[in-house]
Amino acid sequence: MNPTDIHAPEYFHKVVDCQWACPAHTPVPEYIRMIAAGRYTEAYMINWESNVFPGILGRTCDRPCEPACRRVRTEEKPVAICRLKRVAADHKGNLEQFLPQVPKRKNGKRIALLGAGPASLAVARDLLPFGYIVDMFDRDPAGGGMMRSQIPAYRIPADVLE
Question: Pick the residue with more confidence: 22 or 12?
């Protein structure tokens, strides 16, 4: 986003308090509308655009968006935004049609990623659709880094990590 865009009047009606409080500025109202319509896969993909791991964040995020929720102006509690992120992740359908396609013809550039933690996985996710050849190196047999090794299984089940 161009810094001058925040001064445009149309910017202010698009970004709401909870979205602004989110470090990733996830468009919260958009994915909540999708969930309300029963469109969990689309809600998941809205999250996926700004949060590489919506299923993980729906279980581990400290929810800075919720204290900023506008609902507290009229109700006692904010919308359970983070829980809704988890709902979308847990009930999503097949993502294949929504994910960017990795081209068969590569661009000839190789990227080496040291470690298979969240940062490397995010880089791979973003570069593969542009035809980069990504080689990931990690000492552990499965990727995920600290998401896998430091967060207990009761918080993040193995199937969510996979």
Answer: 22
